[in-house]
Amino acid sequence: MAQDIIKTHDINFSYRPFNILATVIAYNGASIAFSPYGHYWRQLRKICTIELLSVKRVQSFRCIREEEVSSMIKTICAREEGSVVNLSEMISSLIYGIVARAAFGKKYKFQQVFISAMEEILHLAGGPSVTDLYPSIKVLQILSSKKGKYERLHRKTDGILQDILDDHRNRKGSDYCEVEEDLIDVLLKFQQDNDLQHPFTDENIKAVIQDMFTAGGETSSTVLEWCLSEMIKNPKVMEEAQAEVRRVYGNKGYVDELGLHQLIYLKSIIKETLRLHPPVPLSVPRENKERCKINGYEIPAKSTVLFNLWAMGRDSKYWNESESFKPERFLNSSIDYKGKFFEYIPFGAGRRICPGITFAIPNMELPLANLLYHFDWKLPNQIKHEDLDMSESFGLTVRRKNDLCLVPITHINPSMCV
Ligand code: HEM
């Protein structure tokens, strides 16, 4: 059915439901993720794939990723040997830090307030919404407590983003040059472009920047958290992954992006994690414009369609030993996540497939390879690996319910290296 919807009826199902989140947070549907299929969305999508998240642009952020990861590794090393590290917190702050520097060009004073507000929005968005179930009862929208919360958070994030935009406009020459062009620079350039079919206001820019945080922050950090959890639960996988990364980087003393393409086993660990723990388990909702028939069912126009990626990834009809964590299944296999294999679509598929794959992959591979290269990991308080709690939280993204806290044992200390 996923194939039927995303392949055969792709255009018809390329719309998104227009809910409170889209109205209040996404500037009336001005963001890439929430705008309805049409000219405006096509324009944004083009800017996004050709400019914002192109391979070249993502490569230009390499130094940001390497610096942020190296700083995380040094922080872990500086701790007293044997002390417990909250990896969930560290990873989340690392990924948001990378996205923020790529988007804003440098660290801003209010960056953390912005990130916390974004996290709160995602948390709120995960809960049930009566107004979305009964959209025609308008009074529910007025009475909704969520709406008020969203409006309060939106005022906060909007003010911060506007300050950052204005700061970019007013800066002189090479005031800050951590990267040649950050994402706001790119979008401001488009604002000056008179050939655009749709004018590009500050609101549009802010909506797109918000997309990068909501879609690009929690997703990658959630995957990393589950990768490490699964490796702790499956020590043989951890050993093999460590052996691979230590073989590839040898005595270099650090893991940079140059050798990442050689980490074949590590890549299959990420794929297997995306199968068992897709960070957006119900994908991003789609909506159909016109009435149609799918698998014998009449689907009325404007139905909200959810894909249960979590269940698809665990379906024994498609996967051997579907509940077991077996990265080997992806070695020598042509199955990937780019939207061609409909039983495995953690990034979605079709016209609205996630445009952030090229950015997400190094954001996950580099930290993971570093954590495996520099440290061995064990559970605190003599907890056995098979007893690690794997409960999931409830939300738009499904993270671990309890933070992943581990004890690192330094294998290669970065301060010892050149
Ligand atoms: C592991 C990381 C990620 C996962 C699993 C993921 C997953 C998804 C999924 C399932 C969708 C819905 C696709 C559909 O409707 O078919 C989506 C959409 C989207 N993602 Fe991602 N994503 C990730 C990282 C990122 C990153 C790093 C960015 C950008 C910085 C990003 C930007 C977007 C945007 C803008 C959309 C909306 C696309 C549209 O509506 O046209 N994502 N993502």
Topology record:
Blueprint: H1 2-8, H2 20-25, H3 39-52, H4 55-60, H5 62-78, E1 85-86, H6 87-104, H7 111-126, H8 130-133, H9 138-143, H10 145-170, H11 183-191, H12 202-216, H13 218-233, H14 235-249, H15 264-276, E2 286-287, E3 292-294, E4 297-299, E5 304-305, H16 309-313, H17 357-374, E6 375-378, E7 405-410
Antiparallel strand pairs: 1-7, 2-5, 3-4, 6-7
The structure holds protoporphyrin IX containing FE (HEM).
Protoporphyrin IX containing FE is lined by residues 32-33, 45, 53, 211-212, 215-216, 219-220, 223, 279-280, 283-284, 286, 346-350, 352-356, 359-360.
Describe it for me?
The protein is mostly helical. The chain contains 17 helices and seven strands. The protein has one domain: Cytochrome P450 (Cytochrome p450), CATH 1.10.630. The protein has helices spanning 2-8, 20-25, 39-52, 55-60, 62-78, 87-104, 111-126, 130-133, 138-143, 145-170, 183-191, 202-216, 218-233, 235-249, 264-276, 309-313, 357-374, and strands at 85-86, 286-287, 292-294, 297-299, 304-305, 375-378, 405-410. The strands form three sheets. The chain has a three-stranded antiparallel sheet with strand order 1-7-6. It has a two-stranded antiparallel ribbon with strand order 2-5. The protein has a two-stranded antiparallel sheet with strand order 3-4. The N and C termini lie far apart (54 Å). Protoporphyrin IX containing FE (HEM) binds at residues 32-33, 45, 53, 211-212, 215-216, 219-220, 223, 279-280, 283-284, 286, 346-350, 352-356, 359-360. Protoporphyrin IX containing FE is lined by residues 32-33, 45, 53, 211-212, 215-216, 219-220, 223, 279-280, 283-284, 286, 346-350, 352-356, 359-360.
